[in-house]
Each structure stands twice: as structure tokens, then as C-alpha cells.
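The data are quoted verbatim here:
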Amino acid sequence: MKTLIKNSIPFLIALLILVVIVFKNRDSKPVLNELFTLNLAQKENIPLNEIIPEGTEISILIDKSDFQLHIYTADTLVETYPVVLGGNPIDDKLREGDQCTPEGTFKIVSKYPHGSWSKFIWINYPTTDSWRKHKKAKANGVISKNATIGGEIGIHGLPEGTDVMIETRINWTLGCISLTNNDVNEIYPFIDKNTVIKIRK
């Protein structure tokens, strides 16, 4: 019985977080993924700094369709990490508050330790292309004329002890990309102003 209760705790935590997200965003109709467990065993337990030396120039590809962050050196894929996204993980970001993760090519604004999410890697959304899509959406009546474009999008970790949100793919952010704290700490030393980040559907 004790084993059954112990094994149920991660599921109950995930369910509680999902209920909070749905309740909090009941008026904005976020698109939430079905809960299912990721096969995290696919990621080998080799730290990135044992695969490539610190100081190696990397680029990042975030694939929204399979919820993965890929690390490349030149054209070589060296590591992949599971991620979760905004409350609407499918659509491209057009305005502040839509809970979408933006798509496009981005650069690094800054990076710093974060009190709640371990590390924050701040990307330069909105870009010129982001503004073009925002203005087009207004012109076509897709979003309100009064909508603002938003900002402060980044890559970051999780509140301590909530790795279950990655394991069960709960898209909990307002548009950022979230990894486990271990994973964001692993990639953090490789990030600099030259790091290019591509986010695709």
C-alpha cells in the first residue's frame, strides 16, 4: 500500500498543476497537451561538458512539434533535451497574453541566475519578424487593434521539485521554454551573445 501511494505522488502533483493551469486560464482558452510520460531514458546521462569542451560555439534548435531542444556544433547534433512550452504550445506568438511560444530565429539578450527557475536565458523577442507578424495579425483582424506584442521570453528551469512537469509534458509557461533545472544548468555555460536560437513549429 505504501508503494502504491508513493508511486501515485508524481501523478497527483501533475494533476494538481494541470488543474491550476486550467483554472487560471479558463477565459483565455489555452491549448494544453494530453498528459503522457516522456521516455527520458532516451537522453544519455553524459554531461554536455564531457561531450564538448566549454567555450565551444553552439547553436540551439527548439522543435515545438516534438518538445525538444537540440544542441548543435556547426551542423553536428551533440545533445537533445526534453522541454515544455507556453500554455498554447502549438501556435506562433502574436501578442502578449496568448501563451504561445514564438517561432523564428533569435539571439541572446542576457543570461542570469533566477530565484525561482534556476537560470534564465533571455532571447530577443520581439524581433523585426515578430513585429511584422504582429502587425499583420492586427491588420487581418486576427488579434485586437489594442493588443501589445509582449516580451521577456527566455529559456529557463522549473520551480524546485517540479521536474514532473517535464516528465508529463505540462506546458505551464506564458510562452517561455522550460527544461529541468539540471538541464538548463548544463547548457548555461555554453550560452553567450553569439548563440543563435531557432524555434520552429
In short: The domain at 2-200 is CATH 2.40.440.10 (L,D-transpeptidase catalytic domain-like). Confidence is low (pLDDT under 50) at residues 1-15, 17-42. The radius of gyration is 17 Å. The chain has five helices and nine strands.
